[in-house]
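writing this on my phone so excuse typos. first protein, seq and then structure
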Amino acid sequence: MSETRFGKAQMAAWMGIIGNLTLAAVKGTIGFIAGSKALMADAVSSASDVAGSLAVLVGLKASRRPADADHPYGHGKAEPIAAIVVSVLMIVIGFEIGKSSLEALKSGVQQAPEWIALVALAISILVKEALFRYNYSLGKKLSSQALLAGAWDHRTDVFASLAAGVGVLGAMAGDLFNQPKLYMLDPLAGIFVSILVLRTGYKMIRESVHNTMDHVLHEEDAAELVQAVQRIHGVITVDGLRAREHGHYVIVDVKISVNPKITVAEGHEIAKLAKQHLMKRFIHVSDVLVHVNPYDPGYPYKNNVDPEQDEMPTLLH
């Protein structure tokens, strides 16, 4: 991970930690004073996001470490692993929120929350939406699974706060119109928040597990890589190319055919040029493994060169 990429990602993680800590403290305090189960559930959700942001930060730092003997392809998968941790935390917290709200629903609610609960939720929605937009934009730009997971965590909190707001507003309407049954809307909103958190956590963990597994880019996504190699002087044809996603970067395996009459040193130099060109042109390509084959004009599908023609491209002419 480059210094610039890491610096931006680290800043986003710290913004999430500070923002969630502040919101958790504010919503928790006001939720207790106002007597709102929905706001308390929302506060617990924000508190869980602090741990999630810390996991993102740890994952970013781990992915920055250079390749070593045990990890020759680097530590890029640390980011999707961090995203899995965030997802699991969301599922656990979602379950706890639902459990607490159900208990409140069974025991009964005697009064509506205070109006200040709505103010806290409005502030939470504005802050969380801003964090979502920042993290999502940066996550897309940097191809960071950990940041994207954190972004959707923030967006889930926006919807959770909206649901909590509806519950609080409904309960307050019950107080206004002397309808005590409407007080139940507050813990019901807490249950809805828990379902929303559980659903998002499940979707995130499914996607994060998929990203930890090696899978190749689709043919249309790798076409630009093939074209770039084909333009290298000395490469007659690209026999095959596979680009494996490894966290936020890509590792390329490519087979090229060169003039069979050139020296081993020339073939090696052509391969080196191909590798350098791919890594320089495509910032998401972290490593390239090039296998050099002698060009065989009689091989199936390789009829684009006249077999009688002695003039084939080499590195020297």
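second protein below, same order as before
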Amino acid sequence: MTSPYDAEDAEELAHDIEQLRAQLAILTTEAFRPELADIDRLPTSEIARIMNGEDRTVPGAVAVQLPAIAAAIDAAAERMARGGRLVYAGAGTAGRLGVLDASECPPTFNTGSDKVIGLIAGGPAALVNAVEGAEDSAELAARDLDGIGLGADDTVVGVSASGRTPYAVGAVEHARAAGALTIGLSCNPGSVLTAAAEHGIEVVVGPELLTGSTRLKAGTAQKLVLNMISTITMIRLGKTYGNLMVDVRASNDKLRARSRRIVALATGAPDEATEAALTAADGEVKTAILMLLADVDAATASARLDKAGGHLREALRD
């Protein structure tokens, strides 16, 4: 027999679910598209054509938000130049995309693993399996941020397709209260996440091919914006020379070969000189380039780069 306490809990749960249904019903990312109701009856080639057409609309939606994206990046780069970190926080697909972007920064830009961080609701286990209830906890987001020692020079990017996910919103609210820079990335207009953040980026991609499956257009939009945030921030921090990844970390054979190619492209030096410079520079690409272009030894090149804060162009003007 059900106790009054159980009945009361069930009634409260039912009320919460009804409220959530009402919230989801007004989100563009959750809208039902009756014209696609028979998509499962179409030939595979036709479904692929429709899907490809849907995907082509995403870059245009991102383009609308370029001013907001640029402003957020400039603010984040300023904080990182002072020693701050870039932190992504999200649940489900949004969280996984943040972790992916963060994990690619060390080999691409030679950042420490603690400089760009991806937090996903439910922790690392949630990367491959759903963790029940994790996305509904703003308190969990606050604990995760406290766990990495959140500071005022950090930037926290809350990522949520709906713009209402408690974990992402809670992360932004907690970070803002701590004095950190906050960015909200969502795919719905007028979102709670945008209201909570200093910089709101709302890439409105419209209803999905599969109703509510925000791993599709919304996920693609989030990936494009996260690419911009990390890449352009690193460009602003001097992690590139032109369009060359001069801070690449040569951690495997492919990257070692890429390092040699980058030095050759930047300097025009022959293979022998490129190899000698990289050996003297202990594999540091920027140091090797500066040695060759400024005709200095490794110690001098390293000192000039340190003085220039790692900016190769500035070091070349020294």
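The mean pLDDT is 92. thats all i got for now
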